Amino acid sequence: MLAYGFFVFLIERLNLLRSILRLLWIYVLLFVSQGWWIIPLLSTYGSLTSINPLNPLNFLLHVATRYATIVNIFLGRAEGILYYSSQFKHYLGIPIAGLFLGVLCLCLLAMWEGRKKKYIWILLSMLTFGLFMTKGDQPPFGNIFLYFYNHIPGFTTFRRPVSKFYWLFLFFYIALAVYGGVMANHYIKKKLYKWILITISFIGVGYLIFAFVKTPFLVPFAIPQYYSEAKEYLYKDNATRILILPGLYGLTPFFNSAVNSFGGTDFLDEAWGIPTVIPDDMNYSPEYPSKEAVNAIGRDIRNECKFCELGKQVMLSHIAVRFDLRDDMSVEDDPQELDRKLQRNPDIANVQTFRSKNGGIKIYSVRKDCRSSLLQLAGKSEATIDYHMVNPTAILITVSHLKDETSLQFLQNYTKNWKLYPYIAQENRLQQTIQIFRQPMFENTHKLVFNYANQWELNAQEIRANLPGTYYSENADGTITIRLLLLYKPQVYFYIGILCSAVFGLFLMVIATITKFNK
Question: What is the Cα–Cα distance from 481 to 386, expressed in whole angstroms?
C-alpha cells in the first residue's frame, strides 16, 4: 500500500482526489478479501485475555528493545535476537555497519539535494515515524512510547516493536538512499568510479548473504523420535492436558545435542497436538487463565504434596519431565529431583520413559480418579452427560436424567463467546444456522469457575417452561433428556467472513469479465 501511494503521489502525479478514491477502494477490497479473519477478530478483540498486573511487561519491553538504539537502527543492527550469539559477529560487525553507513550517506545526500521537494519530506516524515516506533522505549522520547504502551488499548501488541516496525523504517530508509544514489550518479562523471562503487556494493551485499546463511547458529533440526513415541503413548492413554516440567521462569527452552542444540521456541504443542501448560511462579510469561492453578500444582509437586483436586480443575492427565535441556539452562527444579518426587507421589499411576542417546522425556500418568473430562456435571445430581466434539469450536452435548438443577462445567478458558443452544438432530443445516442467531440458553447463569473455566446452571423446570417439547424428551422417571450445542460464537463470524470474501471475489470476477468483453 505504501509503495502504491508513492507511485501515485510521487511518480505518476495523478489527480489527488482520484488517487485517494482509488486508494480507498483498494483498502475496501483488502478488507473484504481478508474478512474471513478480520470479522471474527473484531468480535473477540474486547475479550482477549488480560495481562496479569504482576507481569512486568514494561521490563520485558525494555529487554526486547535493548539493542534498538538510534545508532543500531541506522546501522541495520536493531534486531536483538541476532545478538544472543557471538556466532553472528561476522555478520553484525563491520560488514553490515559499513554497508548501512553507505546507505546513510546516500540518505543524507538525498535530503540535501531534495530539501526543497515535498515528497522528500514525506519520505523523511515516514522514516522518522518508523524510527520512533522501532526504538520503543529507547531515548529520546522513550517515555512517550511507554505512555502509549500503557494507556492506548491494543498498543501492548507491540511488545517487540523492532519486529513490527523495523521494516517500515528500512522501507523509507532505502527509498531515500535510492534517490540519493540517483543524485550521486549525476555527480560522478567517470564511468570507472561508478563501476568501482557498484562492484563494492555487490561484493558487500553478497558477503552479508553468505555470512548469514553460513553462520553456525542457523542449524536445521529434526524433532527426535522419542517425542513421536511419547505422542503415540499419550493418545493411547487419552491425554487431555499435559504439565511440562521443569519450569523455565517464563523463558523459552534451549535444548542439548539430543535436539541439535535447538532453542528459542517450544515445539511441544505442534509435535503432540495436545494442550500443554508450564508453571511460572515469576510471572514473566504471558498470562493465561489457569496459570494460578498450574503454579499451585508445580509447588505441590516440589513439596511432595497431593495435587489431585487441582489437577481435576485444569483437566490434567499427564506430567512430562524433560531431560534434554541444555546444562546451563535456568530451570526452577532439577529434573532428576522432580523424577524422584513424582515417582513417590500417590497421585501418579505409572511412568513411561522415552529417550535417545543424549536426552529424553518421562511421561507420568495421573491416576484415573484424579482426572476430569472436558465437560462434566458438578454437584450431587444424578444426571449424566455425554458429548461429541464436532470440531474445537462446536460440541454436541447430551444431558440425560436431569431432574432439578445441575451445573455444567466446561474446562476451557472462560469467555462470554461460548454459547449454549438447544439442538435438534433432525433440523437441516439452514435451520441450525438460523438457530444460533437467536438468544442462547442459560446465558444469565454463565460464570467463571476455578478462576479460568466456564459453568452454566441447567434447570429442568426452566427448560420445560421455555422450550417446545421437540427440544427435549420426558423420561418415565420424571426426568428429561436434552441435547445442547456448545458453540464458540466467533466461529460463526468466521464462516460469514469466508462467505463475504467468496461472494465479493466472485463479484469482482464477473465485473472484470464484463469489462473485458465490453472492450
Answer: 11
